[in-house]
Design a protein that fits this description.
The protein folds into three domains: 100 residues, no CATH class; 70 residues, Helix Hairpins (Orthogonal Bundle), CATH 1.10.287; 151 residues, Histidine kinase-like ATPase, C-terminal domain (Heat Shock Protein 90). Helices cover 63% and strands 13% of the residues. A five-stranded mixed sheet has the order 2-4-5-7-6, with helices on one face. It has a two-stranded antiparallel sheet with strand order 1-3. The protein starts with a helix and ends with a strand.
Length: 362
């Protein structure tokens, strides 16, 4: 709720309280005057005479003044009950907050005077429902992935143990066969390392608590370093990375996190592109905005998968044995890093082009 809305609500409640106090106190005064002059008149006269004739005479000659002196008392009593009733609004709001926490499925209903607060609380309630639903869905995905990966860890580990056992037991094995077993054991060990890293990444994922260490960095130099590091990964699929960039693009941000974000996108392109193709990367500035774009040729991604591509633990490839299927955190981490730098990231998939675009304000 904005300050303007809050001030409007306070003024509305205060105005209605003043109107009610004035209205009820005047009505109360009129009612007392009516009773004194009609129903209670004879009783009051007898009571005054019984006290003393002088008192009765004083009361009769100063009746208007006596009735007027009663108005502050009526006003005080009326104010107490009206203000007490207004404070019930606070109790209603507190009860509604408890209701949101305990039973968010139930709609919040307040008095007409609190319509603004009612709308705000219902929005909070709906956001809470969505957040809880999303958290539950992510937890289920996370648990499924951990279960699958814990199972998949056994396969390469069993193979490594098996081939190392053969190498240990077969002393007269030929060099070619020994080299073959060593190569297989190495491949399985590397796969085991990859799965272990993914497992660690899932259990330790908490980017929100990671601080941003801002420094002035040259994104052009950073990109050159990252592309050079990715070269070994491109050999198996005979890929080539084409880079178009400006010579110097200075930016104030966290170099470590941005390197992680760009690396995730490059790895994603390598994993999901066709063999013997080119990955195209461009880095430029346009109207004081830094634009990073990476494009590769790959299978068309269905729209329903494209819409979820940045969700945590979501994997385009659902195959557990797919070498390209990671933990489903890379693109989610990238999105959070870019957004923490007040930037944007989007993905498009025209025909067989998969294009990721990052925009950062200089």
């Amino acid at each position: 709720m904005t300050n303007k809305e809050l001030n409007k609500l306070k003024k509305s409640i205060a105005f209605s309280a003043v109107i009610e106090i004035m209205g009820f106190s005047i009505i109360g005064m009129i009612a007392i005057c009516f009773l004194v002059d009609t129903i209670l008149n004879e009783i009051l006269v007898r009571l005054a005479i019984s006290i003393s004739y002088s008192f009765w005479y004083y009361a009769m000659t100063n009746k208007s003044m006596i009735l007027l002196s009663m108005y502050p008392v009526i006003l005080l009593i009326t104010s107490f009950f009206v203000i007490t009733r207004k404070f019930r609004y606070l109790s209603d709001v507190v009860s509604s907050i408890d209701k949101i926490i305990n039973t968010p499925e139930e709609n919040i209903q307040l008095s007409a005077n609190l319509a603004i607060i009612e709308n705000k609380l219902n929005k909070i309630r709906l956001n809470l429902i969505r957040s809880r639903s999303k958290a539950k869905e992510e937890e289920l995905k996370k648990n499924d992935l951990i279960m699958y990966m814990a199972h998949d860890l056994k396969t390469p580990l069993t193979s490594v143990i098996g081939y190392l056992t053969l190498l240990e037991e077969e002393k007269k094995m030929s060099k070619d066969l020994r080299d073959k077993y060593i190569k297989i054991a190495l491949e399985k060990s590397l796969r085991l390392e990859e799965l272990t890293n993914q497992f660690f990444e899932i259990t330790q994922y908490n980017l929100h608590d990671m601080p941003i260490n801002q420094n002035t960095i040259d994104l052009s130099i950073l990109l050159d370093q990252l592309v050079e590091e990715m070269y070994p990964m491109t050999k198996d699929k005979n890929l080539k990375i084409d880079v178009t960039k400006e010579n110097e693009i200075m930016y104030n941000g966290d170099g470590t996190l941005l390197a992680r974000a760009f690396t995730n996108l490059i790895k994603n392109s390598i994993n999901y592109c066709y063999a013997n193709t080119h990955i195209k990367i461009s880095l430029k500035t346009k109207d004081n905005v830094i634009v990073f774009e990476i494009k590769n040729k790959g299978d068309k991604i269905p729209d329903y998968k494209l819409a979820k591509i940045f969700e945590k633990f979501y994997r385009i490839s659902t195959s557990r044995n797919s070498k390209s299927g990671g933990a489903g955190l890379g693109l989610s981490i990238t999105k959070e890093i870019i957004e923490r730098h007040n930037g944007t990231i989007e993905v498009t998939n025209p025909k067989d082009d998969i294009i990721f675009t990052i925009k950062l304000l200089k």
